[in-house]
Design brief:
Largest sheet: 8 strands, antiparallel
Shape: flat
Helix content: 40-55%
Low-confidence stretches: 1-41, 63-78, 229-234
Structural class: alpha+beta
Oligomer: single chain
Order of helices and strands: EEHHHHHHEEEEEEEEEEEEEEE
Radius of gyration: 24 Å
Number of domains: 2
Distance between the termini: 40 Å
């Protein structure tokens, strides 16, 4: 029997959790028919190497987050106050360690599925190899699997689901606890800064407290859903959340553009640039949905895909005309009376990209459905201003759509 040990940020956090749920996840990989001792040894070596890589990735993300916090207005408080900086660093480190078991679990499960797939390929079993390929590409996708024809693969999935469910419950509670303790500590520093007549710093730190309040509510909802066995909330018509904005550091700049965060809203500006933007750090294939809460101070909210404009709201030439571009050719189409979003307000935008059409919604209303060609494409998603507009971005998600 194998075991999964949860590495926790403090002696009081999830201490002593051990899930003895079977070989192949926490301990040695499942031994397949015909696998030799040498193969098992090599597989364990790859598991250890992958675990080291995952931990390296976690700490790189930690350093990036700390750099981002120092760069933003809120981070300037941390740079000037050693006590707050120590608190922030300790919180981020604790969160990184808290999430590590989920990363390790995924890595071990995928390695076992790859090994099983290789065995199926060596046997010349096409259906089994394709089933493994589908699982590797969508192992986070919810729903039942029809693995009855492959007991070993079915068992691997059962082990993974059991471990993931237990971790989700335990980590969800501790995540909420960490946020709550961190919030209380930050509020204490707000009061201290106020007493010391450092009012500007106190205002900036209070903005972070409000941001943490939102995360606490999200953690409470997630914990409640886990306790009740509820499925995660999914956007209408969507199948799986592929990517979600975590902050400006989640995005990559293309061209000369700047992003600054105020009260949880990212302000994107690109003075003198009309094609500069920020893009996701991963690529997407149709069908998918871009779901964003955005606004502008004047004109031009531009969404990008396949290195071209996809949709323009508040177009500088005619703000009432919605612009939709064909991803494969950049052919542009104008839809009159559908493109204007009120300035200095936030709006909910959804753009569904299918192989042969694009559907654009604004604040829950379908604004356009245009026939295009997008099949075979795979590209990051982008968002940016133009003609000196400043785009406000509150949230950004990419969902896989049902074909």
């Amino acid at each position: 029997m194998g075991a999964i040990y949860v590495y926790h940020p403090g002696s009081s956090l999830i201490a002593g959790i051990e899930h003895t749920i079977g070989a192949g996840i926490g301990g040695s990989p499942v031994r397949l028919n015909g696998a030799s001792g040498a193969v098992d040894k090599e597989r364990r070596f790859r598991d250890n190497r992958r675990a080291m890589k995952n931990r390296r990735t976690t700490w790189l993300c930690l350093l990036a987050l700390l750099s981002f916090l120092t760069w933003t207005g809120r981070g300037s408080v941390l740079a000037e106050d050693a006590e707050i900086r120590r608190l922030q660093t300790g919180f981020v480190e604790a969160m990184a360690r808290l999430e590590q078991p989920l990363i390790d679990l995924d890595a071990r499960y995928l390695e076992n599925v790859r090994t099983w797939q290789k065995s199926a390929q060596e046997r010349g079993d096409l259906e089994a190899a394709l089933a493994a390929k589908s699982e590797l590409e969508g192992h986070r996708k919810a729903g039942a699997r029809n693995f009855d024809s492959w007991p070993e693969l079915k068992r691997l999935r059962e082990i993974y689901d059991t471990a993931a469910a237990k971790l989700a419950g335990e980590l969800g509670e501790e995540r909420l606890r960490l946020y709550t303790v961190y919030r209380q500590s930050l509020q204490g520093h707000v009061e201290r800064l106020t007493r010391e007549n450092r009012l500007d710093e106190a205002v900036k730190l209070q903005a972070e407290v409000k941001s943490i309040d939102g995360r606490i509510e999200g953690a409470k909802a997630a914990a409640s859903a886990t306790q009740q066995g509820a499925a995660p909330v999914v956007a209408n018509g969507a199948e799986e959340l592929l990517w979600e904005l975590k902050g400006a550091s989640s995005l990559t700049p293309v061209g000369k553009c700047d992003a600054r965060t105020t009260d949880g809203v990212i302000k994107i500006a690109a003075p003198g640039e009309n094609k500069a933007r920020f893009e996701t750090r991963r690529s997407f294939k149709p069908p998918f949905r871009i779901q964003a809460r955005v606004g502008t101070d004047s004109t031009n909210i531009r969404f990008y895909y396949n290195n071209n404009v996809l949709t323009i709201f508040n177009w500088e030439m005619n703000q009432n005309e919605l612009r939709v571009h064909e991803p494969s050719t950049n052919r542009n189409i104008g839809i009159g009376g559908k493109g204007k979003l009120a300035v200095n307000q936030m709006h909910d935008v959804e753009i569904d990209v299918f192989d042969k059409k694009v559907v654009v919604k604004g604040n829950g209303t379908v604004l356009a459905e245009v026939e295009v060609r997008s099949d075979g494409l795979e590209s990051p998603v982008g968002l940016g201003p133009a003609f000196n507009s400043v785009v406000s971005l509150e949230s950004l998600r990419v969902w896989r759509l049902k074909p």
